[in-house]
Prior knowledge:
About 55% of the residues lie in helices and about 5% in strands. By secondary structure, it is mainly alpha-helical.
Amino acid sequence: MAKVPNFILNPYFCIRNAIVNMTIKKPTVLSGIRPTGYLHLGNYFGAVRNFVRMQDDFNCYFFIADIHSLTTHPIPTDLESSVKQVLAEYLACGIDPEKATIYIQSDVPEVTELYTILNMNAYLGELERTASFKDKARKQPDNVNAGLLTYPVLMAADIIIHKANFVPVGKDQEQNLEMARKFARRFNRMYHKKVFPTPKPFTFDGKDMIKIPGLDGSGKMGKSEGNAINLYEEPAAIRKKVMKAVTDGGPTVMNQEKPVAIQNLFFLMEIVSEPSTIEHFNSLYNNCQIRYGDLKKQLAEDIISYTSPIRERIIEILKDNNYLAKVARLGAEKARESASKTLNEVKEVVGFRRLF
Ligand code: TYM
């Protein structure tokens, strides 16, 4: 057996090392995206941009929620290519597999095991009341499956399997995250042990979670809303979509409040354009001299400048199957290591310990 150096046995060093370890332990972050199509500006600015910003300072897990996407019964070949696409998009946006753990949800079976256990402490009434369930049940009345009902439980399992402290998501995930917090606290209370931290939403500078609007003058940008601009979109398609964005007849009174459709265009501009550009169009609006065609042209060009480098990287990465497979394999290994630790603890706490 290797000789243990003296200083390791010295209590001073033990305590000192423990303190150093405690202070350098980074908080854990987790988030994921369903592979239901190309990532759009809402996914990017609501989630992925924050993933990239967090990867240096936090212990990060970012995954592709392929099990969640089964609730809408995707065609298997479409699902396979969407998973590959999202993985390439994560990498192209700048998530670094050396810094963050990137994995595919179905590669980590511990998640579904924890989901089964958590399902026993999730109640029908509260699941039926969630806005996302009601919304999906309305949108797909012929397919109101049990997976839709327990969607927040699987999401809670995703988060707490790594004991995540923070979850960077857009505003639309607020209620699901609230449910995850509730399930984590409930588990701790039921078993009289603080197994899980209560995960918190994360935004930079203490700002509220964001909702990127669509181009149709209402609601959020979304894959199923048909109002999205994808990161992978070709410039010509971006121009076409932006030029078709909903506007109105223009302001008639100086400094008039902007209607929602116009606010949305300015909101997108705030994200992709230079402050001087926004100021320019704001002042034209306030003086009733704005021409929406010019505003849209500028907005389209600024979106293209933002997304083009990402699009080029996606194209390159998609060609390299070996690299993608390696990233997924490495990510699955790291994620399973962390997930199995938590699952073992959970099994012990609930009484799955073998005493024989
Ligand atoms: P999903 O796939 O619908 O969206 C992925 C991420 O993109 C954000 N997002 C937006 N943010 C701002 N404005 C928008 N218009 C917009 N559209 C989408 C979402 O808020 C999300 O952060 N249930 C999740 C996936 C998931 C998950 C998790 C997330 C499964 N398990 C655990 C976090 C933690 C979903 O369907 O996201």
